[in-house]
Amino acid sequence: MAIPSTLRLEFVTPEREIVHDDVDELQLPGEEGFLGILPGHTPMLVGLKVGAMWYRKGAEKFHGFVGFGFAEVLPDRVTILARIAENADDIDHDRAEAAKRRAEERLAEVARGRVSEMDYERARIALLRAITRLQVSRHARTRS
Ligand code: ATP
Questions:
Q1: Taking CB atoms and a 6 Å cutoff, what residues make up the pocket around ligand 1?
Q2: Strand arrangement, sheet containing 25-30
Q3: Which helix (H) or strand (E) holds 140?
Q4: What CATH architecture applies to the domain 7-89?
Q5: Which of 5, 31, 87, 133 has its CA 20 to 30 A from that of 67?
Q6: Would you put residue 113 in left (φ > 0), alpha (ψ -120 to 50) or beta?
Q7: Ligand 1 mean position, distance from CA 128 (Å)
Q8: According to the model, what pLDDT value does residue 111 have?
Q9: Span 81-99, pLDDT tens digits
Q10: Which atom of ligand 1 lies at the shortest distance from residue 86's CA?
Q11: DSSP secondary structure letters along 104-135
């Protein structure tokens, strides 16, 4: 079978469609590490963690945020079902800065022994989401 020349990318959350396009290449934040995908990739199902993703279309690279989910990879198609996701251009930088500060304050409370292990884990993931959004939104500004 001939290797397809592009990948059809369907990237959705339960709330909205993030990307629906033909792309040349993409990278996803897999649970086991970042995963690069080109047309003709072996079929697989990948669990996604909180992280940055990007896809390339010709000479242009687009960045996005993923907050857990799954991706089905087929030779000519990638379907991403993310619990939470945003395109870099849609990330509100100030909101992410505020979320980062709140998470840092909660982690400081944990360090003082005032909140539980579970609150620690929640605050840790919230901080990771905020830092990742800030990183992704910076890419949107530089277009790198
Ligand atoms: P916040 O405390 O600011 O709500 P959060 O990390 O708790 O941040 P999430 O639970 O990850 O937020 O997301 C809830 C909804 O808000 C999702 O639809 C997500 O896409 C959106 N969202 C969260 N933060 C931002 C942001 N900085 N810019 C744009 N959309 C965001």
A1: 15, 67, 84, 86, 90-92, 95-96, 99, 126, 129, 133
A2: 17-23, 7-12, 77-87, 60-74, 44-57, 25-30, 33-37
A3: helix 117-142
A4: Sandwich (2.60)
A5: 5
A6: left
A7: 12
A8: 75
A9: 999 999 999 999 999 999 9
A10: 20
A11: HHHHHHHHTT-S-HHHHHHHHHHHHHHHHHHH
What ranges do the domains of the chain cover?
Answer: 7-89, 91-143
E-state strands within 13-142: 17-23, 25-30, 33-37, 44-57, 60-74, 77-87
Predicted confidence at residue 141, as pLDDT, reads: 65
From the CA of 130, give the closest atom in ligand 1: 6
Nearest-Å Rg of the Cα atoms of the chain is: 17
Instruction: Yes or no: say if 125 and 49 are a contact pair by the CB < 8 Å rule.
Output: no
Q: Which amino acid is at 12?
A: V
- Sequence letter at residue 136: V
Q: Which residues of the chain have pLDDT under 50?
A: none
- CATH architecture, range 91-143: Up-down Bundle (1.20)
